[in-house]
Design brief:
The protein is built from 34 helices and 19 strands. The chain is an alpha+beta fold and 888 residues long. Among the domains are: 11-175; 195-326 and 349-365 and 411-439, no CATH class; 449-662, Immunoglobulins (Immunoglobulin-like), CATH 2.60.40.10. α23 (684-696) packs antiparallel against α24 (701-713), α24 packs antiparallel against α25 (716-728) and α29 runs parallel beside α31 (821-834). Residues 1-6 and 177-181 have low confidence and may be disordered.
Length: 888
C-alpha cells in the first residue's frame, strides 16, 4: 500500500493495528482456554476452575478493558479515511464489524461486576449478555476475514499460529482435567464425626473471615449476625454452661477434653478444626475462636457429607480463594472483588454445592446420637429432627401419616430459610414474584431465649414468634361426667355447649394437633424446652380450677402441669436438668407430637357446690425455651427469675351454659384429632368411638383410622372391611395400600403384601406423584418389603432369590438409616440363611450396638417415679390432671 493521503491505514494507524492484533491474538488464546474449561465443566458437571483459571480470567478482563478505547479510536480514524472508498462491500463489512466489536466490548463491560458505576445482577439479563459476548467474537472473526479479503492479502500464517496455540491449549485443558472425585478421609476429630479433607487442622483465620463475605453479601451477613448459628458456641450463655460441664467431666474422667468434641463438631467448628478446642486450659471467654460461632465458612466450606448418622458427619476443607483474597492493598482487593463478581462460578462451586441445598446437610447436625466415648455406656439416640421429618407426610416420604400437605415440603430451608427481598450479590428470582431474593440466614425456629439473653432487637424474636404461633392447634373438644375416661363422652363441644351442674365432677378433654411442624414437636433440646398446657377455669370471674400456672416469685412452672417435652433421666433416675448429655440414660416419658398427629389430654374439673353462673375454660399451649431450673444453673449468681419470653402457640376458650359458639375447624376433623390422640395413647376403645364418628360424616379418614385400631388390636377381618370402605370413600390410596399390606403380612399373604409394598416403593399413585411424594426413601417401608421377601423365602423353592431381594432392601434401609436396628436384625437373619457367617456376625454386632437396653431402663425409671410424684403421675399412659390444685 502506498503512503498517500488516500491510504485507509496511515503508518501510525498501522502500528496501532499491529498492537491491537497482537492483543486480540492473546485474548483469543486466553478465551479459548477459558471456554475449554467452561465447556469441560458443562459436559462433566465437575468444577475445574483453579488459580490458573482465575489468573487467565484476570488477563481476560485486563486485556478487554485495555483494548476498548484503542479499538474505538482506530475504527473512528479508519472510518474517516475509508468511508468514501469505492469498494462499498468492504465499507459495509467494516461498519458491521465495528458494530459487532462494540457489542463484544460493551457486553464484556456489562458482564463485569464490581465496577464503581454500575452492575447488572438479574440472572436472565446476564445470561442474554453472556451469550452475546460468546457469539460476537466468532462473528467478528468471520467479518474481519471478509473485510480484509476486499483489501490487502491476509497473513494466514499468523492466524494459523494463533489457531494452533489455541487448539493445543484446549487439548491440554481436557488432557489434564481430573475427575474431581475425592475419597472420604477417616475421622480425626472423634467422637465428633467431622473431618478435614487433609486430616490436619485448619488455621482459625481461614474459618473466621466473615467480614470478607460481608463485602458482597451484606444482607445475608446481617441476617446471620442475629441468628442462633452465630451464637452457637461459647458466645451462647446457655451452651457455655453445658459445654463447660462436659469438658470438666471429660477432663476428670479421661485426663483430656476430647470427649467434648462430640459437641464441638456442630457448635464449635472454629476452635475444633483449628485445634484450640483440645487445649485443657482453653479460655472460653477470651480466646479469639471462642465467640466465632458457626461462621460463614464453617458451613459453606463443607465439601462432602458422610452417612446420615448426624453428629457432624461431614468433611470440611480450607477453601480455595481467588487471587489476592484478604489482601490489605486496596488495588489488589479491588481486583479480587472484580474477579469474583465477574466470574463467580468457581466461587459458587466452592461455597454453594448441591449438598448445601439438601435436607441431609441440615441433618448432619440436627440428628444426634450419644456415642459410647461420651457416656461410657452405649450408643443412644439423641435429638433427631431429620428422621421424623423424613418419615413424615410433610416431606412426602411417610406412608402412614394421618394428614398430608397439598405439596411435599422436601427441604428444611423451605420453612427455616424463608426468602427475603435483597439487593445482595447472591440474590436471584427464587420464586414467581420476579423479585430478587436470598434465602434468609436468620433461621427462624423456636429459640426465643437467645435474642432475649443477648439483648438483640425484638424484631429478631418476632421471626421466631411467627414460626411458633399457630404451628399447633388447641381444641377444648369434649366433656365426660365423672372422673373416668370410660364415661360417656359429650362432644364435640361447640356449636352446642353443655351445661355444668354444681357439685359435679367432669373430665375436660383437650386436643393438641400439630399443624405446621414438619418434625417432632418440640424436638431439639426437648429435655429443657418448656412447652405446657395452661388451663384456667373461672366462674363469675372467680378461679375454680387451674393447671400450668407460673410462680410469680421466680417464674417456676407448676410441676403437675402437662408438658409437651421429654423427661430424660441419668442412670440413677435423676432428671437431666442441665443439658448434661454425657449422663443421658433413658426417658421417663416423651410427650412430643409427630407431624400431623395429635395428643389428647384429660383434666378433672370439680364444680363448686351451689355455684351459679357461666363457667369459662381457657386452654393455652405455651412455650418457653428453658425451664427455671436450667436458667438458675447457667445464670448462677445473676439469676433473678425466669424472665424468658413466653409465646402462646395456640389458644381455645369455651363458656359453658352459654349460647353455642362458632367453630372454625370442621367437626369431623376435631373428632379425628381426638381419636388420633387417644389412639397414640393406646386408648383403643375411645379411639374407635371417635373414628366411627368421623366415618358418620362420610369421611374416608374414619374407616382408614379404624383400620389402624383394628390392626393394632389384631382384629384383622374388621381391618380388611374398614380398608375396603376407606378405598370406596376415596382415602389416600397409598395409605390404603400400606395398611392392606400390613394385614396381608399378618395373614401370611406374602405375595399380596409384596405387591402392596412395591406399589408404595415405586410410588404408583398419580395423586402422590402430582404432590411431589416419593416413598422410596422411607426406610420403614424398605424394611417391611425386605421382611416380606424374607418370609417368602421360607416357603419358596428358590430360597436364595428371595433372600437376595430381602438383602437388597434391608441394605437400602441401613444406608438411609445406618443405625436402624430392624435393618441390622433383618440382615443378620438373611446372611445366616445365606451362609454368610462373617456378615451375619457383623450385623448382629451392629444390632447389639443400636438396640435399646430395656433391662437397664427399668431401674432408672423406678427410682425417678419414686422420687418425683409429679413426673410419676405424668408418666402413666392415661393421665388425668387435676384442676383443683389451687394454691398447691
Amino acid at each position: 500500500m502506498s503512503q498517500t493521503e488516500n491510504d485507509v491505514v496511515s503508518p501510525a494507524l498501522r502500528k496501532l493495528l499491529v498492537v491491537l492484533l497482537v492483543l486480540f491474538a492473546v485474548l483469543v488464546v486466553d478465551s479459548v482456554y477459558l471456554g475449554s474449561i467452561t465447556f469441560l465443566e458443562w459436559i462433566k458437571g465437575i468444577g475445574y476452575q483453579g488459580a490458573a483459571y482465575q489468573f487467565a480470567f484476570l488477563v481476560h478482563l485486563a486485556l478487554g478493558f485495555l483494548v476498548t478505547i484503542p479499538v474505538i479510536v482506530f475504527v473512528v480514524l479508519h472510518l474517516c479515511r475509508a468511508l468514501d472508498r469505492p469498494n462499498r462491500l468492504a465499507v459495509r463489512l467494516g461498519l458491521i464489524l465495528f458494530v459487532v466489536l462494540l457489542a463484544l466490548l460493551v457486553s464484556g463491560i456489562l458482564l463485569t461486576r464490581g465496577l464503581p458505576a454500575f452492575e447488572i445482577q438479574h440472572p436472565e439479563t446476564r445470561t442474554v449478555i453472556y451469550w452475546l459476548h460468546v457469539v460476537t467474537p466468532l462473528i467478528a472473526c468471520w467479518l474481519f476475514v471478509m473485510h480484509r479479503l476486499a483489501g490487502p492479502q491476509i497473513r494466514w500464517r499468523v492466524g494459523g499460529a494463533v489457531t494452533l496455540i489455541s487448539v493445543v491449549i484446549s487439548v491440554c485443558a481436557f488432557w489434564f482435567a481430573e475427575s474431581g472425585e475425592k475419597t472420604t478421609p477417616e475421622g480425626n476429630f472423634l467422637p465428633s464425626l467431622a473431618r478435614t479433607d487433609s486430616g490436619r487442622v485448619i488455621p482459625a483465620e481461614l474459618l473466621m473471615r466473615n467480614d470478607y463475605c460481608a463485602d458482597c453479601h451484606e444482607d445475608v451477613h446481617a441476617q446471620w449476625q442475629v441468628s442462633a448459628h452465630r451464637f452457637a458456641s461459647f458466645n451462647n450463655p446457655a451452651y457455655l454452661f453445658s459445654v463447660r460441664n462436659t469438658r470438666q467431666v471429660a477432663l476428670e474422667r479421661d485426663g483430656d477434653v476430647r470427649a467434648a468434641r462430640f459437641c464441638a463438631g456442630c457448635h464449635d467448628p472454629v476452635p475444633l478444626f483449628s485445634g484450640a478446642f483440645d487445649e485443657i486450659d482453653f479460655d472460653d471467654e477470651n480466646h479469639p475462636t471462642a465467640h466465632a460461632g458457626i461462621t460463614c465458612v464453617s458451613c459453606h466450606a463443607i465439601e462432602q457429607l458422610g452417612s446420615p448418622r448426624g453428629n457432624a458427619d461431614y468433611v470440611i476443607a480450607a477453601p480455595e480463594h481467588y487471587p489476592f483474597a484478604f489482601s490489605e492493598n486496596r488495588l489488589l482487593s479491588f481486583l479480587n472483588g472484580l474477579l469474583i463478581k465477574g466470574k463467580p462460578d468457581f466461587h459458587k462451586r466452592t461455597f454453594l454445592k448441591p449438598l448445601h441445598k439438601s435436607t441431609e446437610f441440615c441433618g448432619t447436625c440436627h440428628k444426634v446420637h450419644l456415642p459410647e466415648a461420651l457416656n461410657e455406656y452405649k450408643w443412644l439416640r439423641g435429638q433427631n429432627h431429620y428422621d421424623s421429618f423424613l418419615l413424615s407426610g410433610v416431606s412426602g416420604r411417610g406412608v402412614e401419616s394421618f394428614y398430608y400437605p397439598p405439596k411435599a415440603i422436601t427441604r428444611c430451608a423451605e420453612c427455616h430459610m424463608p426468602l427475603a427481598a435483597s439487593a445482595d450479590f447472591a440474590a436471584a428470582p427464587n420464586d414467581d414474584s420476579g423479585r430478587l431474593t436470598v434465602h434468609g440466614h436468620h433461621f427462624p425456629a423456636a429459640n426465643t431465649a437467645l435474642p432475649h439473653l443477648l439483648g438483640l432487637p425484638e424484631s429478631v424474636n418476632r421471626a421466631h414468634r411467627d414460626m411458633l404461633e399457630g404451628a399447633l392447634r388447641v381444641d377444648i373438644f369434649g366433656l365426660r361426667e365423672g372422673s373416668d375416661i370410660d364415661a360417656p363422652l359429650v362432644a364435640p363441644i361447640r356449636p352446642d355447649v353443655p351445661a355444668l351442674r354444681s357439685g359435679a365432677t367432669y373430665l375436660v378433654d383437650v386436643v393438641i394437633r400439630s399443624l405446621r411442624v414438619g418434625h417432632l414437636f418440640t424436638e431439639g433440646t426437648a429435655d429443657s424446652n418448656q412447652v405446657w398446657l395452661e388451663i384456667i377455669a373461672k366462674q363469675n370471674g372467680r378461679l375454680i380450677g387451674m393447671s400450668g400456672l407460673l410462680d410469680s416469685a421466680d417464674g417456676s412452672l407448676d410441676p403437675w402441669s402437662h408438658f409437651v417435652n421429654a423427661y430424660v433421666l441419668d442412670r440413677e433416675g435423676n432428671r437431666i436438668d442441665r443439658r448434661n448429655a454425657e449422663d443421658i440414660f433413658t426417658k421417663l416419658y416423651d410427650n412430643q407430637i409427630p407431624p400431623g398427629a395429635a395428643d389428647t389430654i384429660h383434666y378433672r374439673l370439680d364444680m363448686p357446690e351451689l355455684a351459679k353462673g357461666d363457667v369459662e375454660v381457657t386452654a393455652r399451649l405455651r412455650y418457653r425455651k428453658f425451664d427455671t431450673n436450667y436458667m438458675r444453673l447457667f445464670q448462677g449468681d445473676e439469676f433473678k427469675g425466669n424472665d424468658l419470653p413466653i409465646v402462646t402457640i395456640a389458644e381455645d376458650s369455651v363458656t359453658f351454659s352459654a349460647d353455642g359458639a362458632p367453630v372454625v375447624t370442621e367437626s369431623w376433623e376435631r373428632w379425628n384429632d381426638y381419636g388420633i390422640g387417644m389412639f397414640r395413647k393406646g386408648a383403643y376403645r375411645q379411639a374407635e368411638e371417635a373414628f366411627r364418628q368421623v366415618a358418620a360424616f362420610d369421611r374416608p379418614e374414619g374407616p382408614l383410622n379404624l383400620a389402624r385400631v383394628f390392626i393394632d388390636e389384631g382384629r384383622l377381618d374388621e381391618a380388611v372391611s374398614a380398608l375396603q370402605e376407606a378405598a370406596r370413600k376415596g382415602a389416600y390410596p397409598w395409605s390404603v395400600a400400606w395398611f392392606s399390606a400390613l394385614v396381608d403380612m399378618q395373614n401370611g399373604e406374602f405375595d399380596a403384601a409384596i405387591d402392596g409394598f412395591l406399589s408404595l416403593f415405586t410410588t404408583q399413585f398419580n395423586e402422590a406423584r402430582e404432590r411431589g411424594f416419593d416413598f422410596s426413601l422411607n426406610y420403614r417401608l424398605r424394611n417391611k418389603l425386605a421382611q416380606a421377601y424374607f418370609e417368602k423365602s421360607k416357603i419358596s423353592k428358590d430360597e436364595r432369590r428371595w433372600l437376595k431381594m430381602s438383602e437388597e432392601h434391608y441394605r437400602a434401609a441401613a444406608e438411609l438409616d445406618p443405625e436402624n436396628v430392624t435393618a441390622h436384625y433383618g440382615l443378620t437373619q438373611v446372611y445366616a440363611r445365606l451362609g454368610e457367617r462373617d456378615l451375619a456376625t457383623r450385623h448382629r454386632e451392629l444390632h447389639e450396638i443400636y438396640r435399646v437396653d430395656d433391662n437397664a431402663h427399668d431401674r432408672a425409671v423406678a427410682i425417678a417415679r419414686k422420687n418425683d410424684p409429679a413426673a410419676d403421675h405424668a408418666a402413666d399412659s392415661i393421665v388425668v390432671y387435676d384442676l383443683g390444685r389451687l394454691g398447691l
